[in-house]
Design goal:
By secondary structure, the protein is an alpha+beta fold. It has one domain. Helix content is 32%, strand content 31%. Helix 2 packs antiparallel against helix 4. The chain is elongated and about 50 Å long. The protein starts with 7 loop residues before the first helix and ends in a 5-residue tail after the last helix.
Amino acid sequence: MTAALVPLTGVAKLAAVAVTYVRDTPAPEPCYLALNPGSHAVEIQPDVRQATPVTVLGTLLVWTHRLTGINGDWWHTPGGELHITLTGRGPSGVRFLVYSSFPYRVARRHVALAAGARESVTPDELYRLALELRKGHTK
């Protein structure tokens, strides 16, 4: 006899929502996808290895463009990365958390964060950062 902490119908529903969302999002496939039935959430890390920072930002925006109530934060990791997380509500009220990173040095002219510092960020700010980086202001 097993004692499930979450009814399996919840897992199946969450998996179905995740599969549909991934299938219908025109972005790079995830390299990591996690279902968290306890918090009714899906975590997605897009596969953007070897991608430019502009591509990373664009991918985060595409993965989250259909979500509502989007909140974000970015963090200058001790390892020198700019880690970005966007969270919002998707189909059936499922919470989606989408994240990625790229070297902080690329964005330091536009993002003033001390190592270890964390700050909120909006999708509009990420879009503007992508535009600035795209102009070639990455030195």
